[in-house]
Write a structure and sequence with these properties.
It contains one helix and ten strands, in the order H-E-E-E-E-E-E-E-E-E-E. The chain is α+β, with helices and mostly antiparallel strands.
Length: 132
């Protein structure tokens, strides 16, 4: 191998390792250890849970109230990743979200301790809602 090939391989290896380290740090900071309810509101006795969809789902983990009617409000803005192809197995929901807009998904009141998980069709991105 010549000198240019060796340098190119070295640079490629550094870039790959750096990318893996950055993704690992991002994933560890968005684990289920930090649930939020800042994206939950009540309007006319209906719980609204807002999930933003763009290059994944945010927030990834939500705490919500149990035993009340709920709407999962999916908000997209220039979403062209697989996150726009949403699957929520527990409620048998499967749909392609618009690239930009809002889709309301009504769900039945959930029991205390139950959890709903949404994911993209490829399984790369996900979110969870735990009901207390």
């Amino acid at each position: 191998m010549n000198k240019n090939t060796i340098i190119s391989l070295f640079i490629a290896a550094v870039l790959i390792i750096g990318s893996i380290l950055l993704v690992g740090q991002k994933n560890s900071s968005t684990t289920n250890n930090n649930p939020t309810n800042s994206n939950v509101s009540i309007e006319n006795d209906i719980q609204i849970i807002e999930i933003t969809t763009r290059g994944g789902y945010s927030p990834q983990y939500t705490l919500a109230k149990a035993n009340i009617p709920t709407i999962i409000r999916m908000k997209t803005s220039g979403t062209f990743s697989c996150a726009s192809s949403l699957v929520i197995p527990k409620i048998d929901y499967r749909s392609n979200l618009p690239p930009t807009g809002t889709v309301d998904i009504p769900i039945e009141p959930q029991k205390v301790g139950s959890e709903i998980t949404g994911l993209c069709a490829m399984g790369m991105y996900n979110f969870s809602i735990k009901f207390n």
